[in-house]
Amino acid sequence: QVQLVESGGGSVQAGGSLRLSCAASRSIFRDNVMGWYRQAPGKQREVVARISSGGRTTYLDSVKGRFTISRDRKTVALQMNTLKPEDTAVYYCNFAWDWADPGDYWGQGTQVTVSS
Which of 3, 17, 23, 42 has the smallest number of Cβ neighbours within 10 A? Predict the structure, then answer.
């Protein structure tokens, strides 16, 4: 079992920055993938960024160049710069054993609100 606890988030004006952090309940030594998803009102949850234990990363096209994901054995962070109103959503931390399936380990969600 892996439990995830998120921190960060909040409200910011367009062009500002926020940093999200997520800590797993234990260090993981098997290969794995941690990441961030988001869900805006009335929309489906979408993947924002993911990073493997080996350091491979993927990003949603709309956040490339603005967001940076990083991690160590038990934490994952998302640095969000040049935020836009369309980035407003609830952001969820995720832990998965591989790229193919996000699995069942999710954080509680943290609200990010960007005002214009």
Answer: 42
